[in-house]
């Protein structure tokens, strides 16, 4: 440390001058912050091993489902891979982002970057994209199998892209949520726990709350069943090979039963990340799928039918008659539920809300000069 | 402050305060740091030095008071202040899996330097802080002292006009401390303004042009300046014949404090010190040691009526 003569001063221009307390993002700043984050969080050999095992599990399960089906078209392998990619993304992305700010702060590498020309939004978005990029890489790794599964799925290409886009968007929102907890909690262990608790509430908690809240929306109600009046059939009728119960009159029977208004709780299902993905998938008609060039309704179609039932008013009139009577038959009901227009928008809107609110929190927490500090932290 | 200059001060702070909940970290800090000077910020642990530096750097908003750095307020114009400041924190953080050169290149780019330029400047700075052989090695292999030097290089990457060095000598070996002192003086000679906090007061004595003392969250101002000025006049004389020493000083009318093996005298400047030594030798006093009574800053620090918190 003896001489400074070999060092030139950096050239500055008038356009480099800064005024105020800039916090907004720039393309250059976000790209650099992302690059720094990706470089410094480059996985170790053990990390690559874990990612490799995760991807192998996803592809392995998909192949297992693919070979266990001898049907020409089968959408289940692709649907399984999509759900697994969503699950892996919701674990990996938030786990990485949940230590990104408080971890950097306690390691003493956050403040020097805050002192640079990188703005709070540059840092926030850089950290977000870097964590999210790892999930994107996991998705890309599954591409060969995904394309194979797509070729057997009967889906259209734009439908697959739309579902994958929604998966990546949901993962982005959850990654942002992890980042927000990381900016709020002083210790990494707290932010990681809070992130997984929040993910768990939205992923599993919504389903549990839906199930356990059913008694709250149940009430005694009159239900009408239409069925043939079998009592009118004589013994001769039953012994007559030409006799059909459809020849019997279709009569209503009323009974008072506990009816659950799941339509009041259906929003809990619609904000569930997995349901969002299901509701993004194409609608398959159980009667015309072959003519439509589709595979038989798979897991997504089955789940969509269940969600649609939950969204609908309770059925208080059921028709078991082969002919006559009122109300839809069981098969008609099932088909109608399967054809209900999907509604992924509440879930997408929630994910968007989480994304925007989380990033607003993160930018606010990264802006300097600090007005308040997290309890138990130092700036540097 | 000992450096006088017509240029506006690089750093001024007036009645600055900052609390964290009930804890008043900085109660009332007032200071002026002239351009091109090296100024020490001295005080016991927990007296508010780092908090004050963070406010000067634009990382922490003061509750009250005014700060101007390089003509800008860190509160209303923190971007410009951050551009003007090179900051070496007391916490040694580094990106463990990145190399030293990658670290400096990326930091340079974070200050809007072009990549190749930042890389070249990083190489120059690594040479400057004697870490060139570690350029392509990950920072996790660096010792504490080496990380300290990398931190200094990082603070210089964008050629700031003001340097804030928080405990820069911590963890440095004796040779590196001497080199740090030389580097700081060279940077000041090149026009940079440097505010340095340190506990190694003997090192600061030869490095700084002035000092600001802090105690219980407040700067001590003129009282401390007077104490430093007084401490600088104190010379220690040791002789083999104490009676002869006392007699000679008495004949010359020089007040002195007796101490074991010699006396403490006060001289106005180095010329007067030289004249006194010559007169003592001429008087036949067997002087075997003559020099400043010790670090002026250390004496002042010890004299401060300080309660450690």
Can you describe what's shown?
The complex is a heterodimer of chains A (380) and B (309). Chain A has 380 residues and is mainly alpha-helical. Chain A has two domains: 21-212 and 344-366, no CATH class; 216-338, no CATH class. Chain A has 15 helices and three strands. Chain A is elongated. Residues 2-6 and 11-15 of chain A have low confidence and may be disordered. Chain B folds into two domains: 11-220, P-loop containing nucleotide triphosphate hydrolases (Rossmann fold), CATH 3.40.50; 233-303, 2-Layer Sandwich (Alpha-Beta Plaits). The longest helix of chain B is centred in the middle third of the chain and has 16 residues, at 174-189. Chain B starts with 10 loop residues before the first strand and ends in a 6-residue tail after the last helix. Mean pLDDT of chain B is 88; it is low at 1-5. Chains A and B meet through helix 1 and helix 5 of A and helix 1, helix 2, helix 3, helix 4 and helix 5 of B.
In short:
The complex is a heterodimer of chains A (380) and B (309). Chain A is 58% helix and 7% strand.
Summed over residues and divided by their number, the pLDDT of chain B gives a mean of 88
Q: Give me the number of helical elements of chain A.
A: 15
Looking at CATH, the homologous superfamily of the largest domain in chain B is P-loop containing nucleotide triphosphate hydrolases
| Percent of residues in beta strands of chain B | 15-25%
Described by its quaternary structure, the protein is heterodimer
Query: What is the helix content of chain A?
Result: 55-70%
CATH class value of the largest domain in chain B: Alpha Beta
Q: Which protein chains make the most extensive interface, counting residues with beta carbons within 8 Å of the other chain's beta carbons? A: A-B, 43 and 60 residues
């Amino acid at each position: 440390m003896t001489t400074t003569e070999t060092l030139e001063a950096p050239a500055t221009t008038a356009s480099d001058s800064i005024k105020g307390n800039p916090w907004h993002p720039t393309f250059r700043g976000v790209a650099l912050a992302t690059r720094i984050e990706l470089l410094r969080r480059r996985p170790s050999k053990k990390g690559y091993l874990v990612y490799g095992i995760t991807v192998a599990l996803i592809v392995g399960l998909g192949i297992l489902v693919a070979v266990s089906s001898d049907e020409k078209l089968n959408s289940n392998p692709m649907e399984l891979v999509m759900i697994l990619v969503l699950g892996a993304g919701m674990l990996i992305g938030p786990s990485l982002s949940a230590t990104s700010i408080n971890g950097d702060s306690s390691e003493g590498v956050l403040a020097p970057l805050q002192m640079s020309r990188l703005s709070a939004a540059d840092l926030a978005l850089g950290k977000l994209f870097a964590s999210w990029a790892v999930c994107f890489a996991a998705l890309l790794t599954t591409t060969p199998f995904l394309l194979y599964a797509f070729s057997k799925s009967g889906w259209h290409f734009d439908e697959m892209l739309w579902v994958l886009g929604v998966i990546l968007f949901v993962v982005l929102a959850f990654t942002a949520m992890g980042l927000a907890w990381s900016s709020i909690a002083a210790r990494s262990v707290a932010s990681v726990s809070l992130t997984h608790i929040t993910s768990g509430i939205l992923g599993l908690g919504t389903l549990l709350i839906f199930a356990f809240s059913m008694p709250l929306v149940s009430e005694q109600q009159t239900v009408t069943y239409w069925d043939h009046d079998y009592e009118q059939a004589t013994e001769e009728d039953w012994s007559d090979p030409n006799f059909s119960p459809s020849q019997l009159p279709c009569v209503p029977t009323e009974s008072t039963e506990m009816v659950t208004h799941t339509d009041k709780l259906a929003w809990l299902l619609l904000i569930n990340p997995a349901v969002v993905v299901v509701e993004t998938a194409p609608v398959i008609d159980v009667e015309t799928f072959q003519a439509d060039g589709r595979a038989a309704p798979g897991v997504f179609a089955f789940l969509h039918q269940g969600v649609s039932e939950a969204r609908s008013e309770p059925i208080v009139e059921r028709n078991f008659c082969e002919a006559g009577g009122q109300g839809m038959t069981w098969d008609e009901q099932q088909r109608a539920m399967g054809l209900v227009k999907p509604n992924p928008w509440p879930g997408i809107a929630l994910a968007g809300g989480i994304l925007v609110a989380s990033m607003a929190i993160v930018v606010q927490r990264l802006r300097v000069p600090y007005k308040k500090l997290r309890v138990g932290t130092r700036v540097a | 402050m000992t450096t006088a200059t017509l240029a506006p001060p690089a750093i001024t702070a007036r009645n600055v305060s900052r609390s964290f909940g009930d804890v008043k970290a900085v109660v009332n800090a007032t200071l002026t740091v002239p351009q091109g000077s090296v100024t020490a910020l001295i005080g016991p642990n927990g007296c508010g030095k780092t908090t004050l530096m963070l406010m000067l750097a634009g990382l922490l908003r003061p509750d009250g008071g005014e700060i101007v750095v390089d003509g800008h307020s860190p509160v209303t114009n923190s971007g410009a202040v951050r551009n003007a400041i090179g900051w070496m924190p007391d916490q040694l953080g580094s990106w463990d899996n990145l190399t030293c050169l990658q670290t400096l290149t990326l930091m340079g780019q974070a200050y809007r330097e072009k990549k190749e330029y930042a890389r070249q400047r990083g190489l120059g700075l690594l040479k400057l802080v004697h870490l060139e052989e570690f350029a392509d090695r990950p920072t996790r292999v660096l010792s504490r002292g080496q990380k300290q030097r990398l931190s200094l290089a990082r603070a210089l990457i964008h050629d700031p006009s003001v340097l804030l060095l928080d405990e820069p000598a911590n963890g440095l070996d004796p040779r590196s401390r001497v080199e740090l002192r030389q580097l700081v003086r060279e940077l000041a000679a090149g026009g940079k303004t440097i505010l340095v906090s340190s506990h190694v007061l003997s090192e600061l004595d030869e490095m700084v042009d002035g000092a600001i003392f802090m105690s219980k969250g407040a700067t001590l101002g003129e009282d401390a300046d007077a104490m430093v000025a007084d401490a600088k006049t104190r010379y220690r004389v040791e002789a083999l014949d104490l009676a002869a020493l006392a007699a000679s000083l008495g004949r010359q009318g020089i007040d002195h404090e007796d101490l074991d093996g010699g006396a403490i005298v006060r001289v106005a400047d180095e010329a007067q010190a030289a004249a006194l030594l010559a007169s003592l030798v001429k008087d036949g006093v067997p002087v075997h040691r003559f020099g400043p009574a010790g670090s002026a800053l250390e004496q002042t620090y010890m004299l401060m009526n300080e309660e450690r918190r």
